[in-house]
Write a structure and sequence with these properties.
The chain has 137 residues and is of the alpha+beta class. 47% of the residues lie in helices and 23% in strands. α1 packs parallel to α3.
Length: 137
Amino acid sequence: MDGTNTYQACIEDNESFLKTCEALQPRLIFFFGRELFWAFASPVLSSKVESIFGNRVGEVIWLQKEVYFNGKLRRRFRFGFQRYEKLMVVVLPHATGAQGVASDYIEAFKPEMTEVVNAWWVKHEEKLKIHATISTV
């Protein structure tokens, strides 16, 4: 990067992002990089975030998997999952810091990601089907 402290910059320049969140009310957010999540979940922004998404439900869960490829252990990167009353946050490795993330390592998280996406789908399936029907008429 250009020497910018991503965490601090996200905290200082949060207004546009949080206003967009307030307007759109997403139920699932993916952060690519821990610094973005740490800023989002920081004590400085917690009251703003929780006013939009409700209280945190539990602590962030960080998962790391042991995957072997060609006899070599791949267990470097972590995925994070944080639930709020009205939101699920998923933290994935950022591409600039994740050199060497192999597809088999990403695939190892399929059960957790399937659970997250399926939970989102259950809440939105009917609305999306209605919208698709109206759009084709």
